[in-house]
Design brief:
Helix content: 55-70%
Number of strands: 5
Structural class: alpha+beta
Number of domains: 2
Number of helices: 16
Strand content: 5-15%
Order of helices and strands: HHHHHHHHHHHHHEEEHEEHH
Radius of gyration: 25 Å
Distance between the termini: 33 Å
């Protein structure tokens, strides 16, 4: 009887905590979205007051990106600020004013002053979906299609993954051509196994972490996390050529987030070394993703006088390990040859990868005994 009572109260508390975490994530997302909409509004209205609007807008956003990043950290790059401006234009004031008039007796404006910080919470009622969903919706150019996806996401309770899947599969266009629209909508409401997002995942959303100025220490597995640390130490022990710059560096391309496992600077080669670890066998997609990282690093992280970055893909699949340098996009063969001469031998790295993996597995098995 006591065990049954305990099981019952434990289940109730677990359900309560899950509900509280989900509610917290929704609340933070709504406040964040309202804040970003207001930032976009202020940027747009400030542009309209500039004499040369296009030039003034570019200068304004550039300066804001520098100042806000210095004060608040991540999340306020130029692309992000332009996205906030686009968000304001896609969800105009008349739509937000209409929602606020229903949700709050507080005025949105007073004597022509803009939305006050104390009113952000009231404005959040106009944005019931997560900020990630609005970012995804911005990629839908047709106003009618965007409104459809927003309405259906709210009505059916779509997760971000469901919304992304429906947009990718062109649900709006398929329904427009379908004779049985109700049946298609009913089918679209059904979630797929991978659609569900846990409260922990929602709270660890990169947008939420940026907004709250929290560090993202997430790693896909304990093994991968430990291997990354082992490899970082190993490379630093090879000599003073490798200078450690960071691990689990996040970058966003369009609406997709990526994590780069390790970033070093090689002093002799004068170039960044981007390292990506795969707990699995090597595939063509891994090479494509690495070249994406290198192109991004070349454009955004490479300093004047440096050589182009080089990538190292490490695969720690069971039964086999391999290391591959990505040198294809270097401007000339001489530079590629120099890189191959100076960088650590790939077999040396593979041996360390296998040794570290075995040590970690042995340690894990010993802990279970």
């Amino acid at each position: 009887m006591i065990e049954q009572q305990y099981s019952g109260i434990r289940a109730e508390i677990v359900a309560l905590l899950h509900a509280a975490r989900s509610a917290s994530a929704r609340s933070v997302n709504a406040l964040m979205t309202a804040s970003y909409w207001e930032i976009g509004r202020r940027i747009f209205q400030s542009e309209q007051q500039g004499e040369e609007r296009a030039e003034y807008g570019e200068a304004l956003v550039s300066q804001l990106a520098v100042d806000l990043t210095r004060q608040f950290g991540r999340g306020f790059s130029k692309p992000n600020l332009w996205k906030m401006r686009a968000f304001y234009l896609a969800w105009p004031e008349r739509q937000i004013l209409s929602t606020l008039s229903r949700e709050s007796a507080q005025p949105l404006y007073s004597n022509n002053f803009p939305l006050l910080p104390t009113d952000i919470q009231a404005a959040a009622a106009a944005f019931p979906l997560p900020w990630s969903s609005y970012v995804r919706l911005l990629s839908v150019k047709r106003i009618e299609a965007r409104a459809f996806y927003e309405a259906e996401a709210l009505r059916s309770g779509w997760s971000m993954r469901q919304l992304d899947r429906q947009i990718e599969s062109q649900l709006y266009e398929r329904i427009a051509l379908s004779r049985n629209k109700a049946a298609m909508l009913e089918k679209a409401e059904k979630a797929q196994p991978n659609d569900t997002m846990t409260p922990e995942e929602a709270i660890k959303d990169p947008f939420v972490l940026e907004f709250l100025d929290l560090k993202d220490e997430y790693s896909e597995s304990e093994l991968e996390d430990a291997l990354i640390q082992h490899l970082a130490d190993f490379l630093l022990e090879l000599g003073d050529d490798f200078a450690f710059l960071g691990r689990q560096r996040r970058l966003r391309l369009d609406d997709t987030w990526f994590r780069i496992d390790l970033i070093f600077f090689h002093r002799r080669l004068r170039c960044l070394v981007i390292i990506d670890l795969k707990v699995g066998s090597f595939g063509y997609a891994d090479a494509g993703q690495m070249h994406l990282y290198l192109n991004y690093a070349r454009e955004h992280w490479m300093k004047e006088g440096e050589n182009p970055p080089v990538g190292l893909i490490l695969c720690a699949g069971k039964g086999a390990a391999e290391a591959r340098y990505a040198l294809d996009n270097l401007p000339n063969k001489v530079l590629a040859a120099e890189y191959q001469t100076v960088l650590p031998n790939e077999k040396l790295i593979v041996d360390e990868l296998e040794r570290s993996t075995q040590q970690l597995e042995d340690r894990r098995l010993a802990a279970k005994k």
